[in-house]
Amino acid sequence: MTATPHFTGDASPYGGGDPYADHRTADFPFTRLVDLADRRLGAGVVAANDEFFAERENLLRPEPAEFDPERFGHKGKIMDGWETRRRRGTGATEPHPTDEDHDWALVRLGAPGVVRGLIVDTAHFRGNYPQSVSVEATSLPGSPSPEDLLAPDVTWTTLVPRTAVGGHAANGFTVEAEQRFTHLRVNQHPDGGIARLRVHGEVAPDPGWLAALGTFDVAALENGGQVEDASDRFYSPPTNTIAPGRSRQMDDGWETRRRRDKGNDWIRYRLTAQSEIRAVEIDTAYLKGNAAGWAALSIRDGEGAEWAELLPRTRLQPDTNHRFVLPAPVRGTHVRIDIFPDGGISRLRLFGSLTGEGAARLAARHEALGG
Fold this sequence. Notes:
By secondary structure, the protein is mainly beta. Helices cover 6% and strands 39% of the residues. Strands 1, 2, 6, 7, 8, 9, 10 and 12 form an eight-stranded antiparallel beta sheet that branches. Strands 13, 14, 16, 17, 18, 19 and 21 form a seven-stranded antiparallel beta sheet that branches. A hairpin with a 7-residue loop joins strand 17 (294-300) and strand 18 (308-315).
C-alpha cells in the first residue's frame, strides 16, 4: 500500500493572484468513493464548542473554499471554513493552552457507512490552522442530539489519532476501522481553522429500513449502491448519477470528454445487494447539447458472471427523464450502463427489491459492521 502523503507546517502568506496556486494536495485514492458527509445525503455539523470567527456549517459546503483578502467583519477576517478563537492559558504565569485543550465539532454523516479515508482541508488557513487534528467516530440509532452524542456512556472509536497537519493543505488520512458509523467528532488541537471536511467511504444501509420500504432504488447511494468503475471521469464524477434528487445543473450529473474514436463510454455499478429490478429511469436533466445519444443497460448476477441485456440500446432525448417498465423482474447484483457514443446522463434509477439471498447477505454485513 502506498503511504498517504502528509503535510505539516505553515504555508507562505498570501501574496496575490490565484490563492490555490500554492495549495498543497495529492491524489488520494479513496476520494473516488462517495463522500459520506455530503450535504446532498443529509449530512450536517450538528454542534461545535466554538465558532467565533467562522461557522461550523462551512465544513461541509460542497464547493472548494473561497478566499477574499478584503473581506473583514466586526470579529476580524471572515474565512470560508470553521475557525475558533485563539485559546489562552489560565493566567499570566501560564499563558499557553494545555496539551489537552482543543476545539471540537460533531458531524452527522449523511449516510451511515464504513469510512475509508478523510480529508481535513486547511485551504487558506496559512498561519491560523490547528497544530494537529484527531477524528473519532461512533454509531447511534435514530436522530441523536448533541447532548446524546456527548453523553459519558457513548463509545468513540479513533479514526485518526492526534496528528500534526499543515496549513493551506489537503491533509489526507487513510482509515482502517471496519465498522459502521453514523457520527464523527472532529478535534483541532489546540484551536484554529479548517476549511473543509470530506469523509470518503462505503454506505452501509439499515436492512430493517430497506425491508420496510419494499420497493426502492437499488442503485442509489443512500441505499448502498456504488460505482465500481467508469470509462471517463473528465468533467464530473460518475457517482453523481446515483446521488439523491434530480440534477440541478449540468455538472451535477456525469459528462464525458468528446470521443474521437468509434468506442463508447460506460459506468459499472454494484447494487445494494442481489435484487430484482422492475423499472428504470435514465435522466438527462440539464444535459442539452451534450446528452448521450443512446443508452443500453446490462446486468449480471455475481462477480464474474456473464452480462445479460437489461434494456436494449435506446434513443435518449436531451434534458429529459426517461422511464421504462420492464416486462418481467430481472435479478442481479451489478448493472452497467453504456452510453453511445459519449456525452452524459444526470441520474440512473433502478427500482426493485432485495431477493431473500440479498436481504440475508445485507443483514449479515450489517451485523458484522456492528450495526
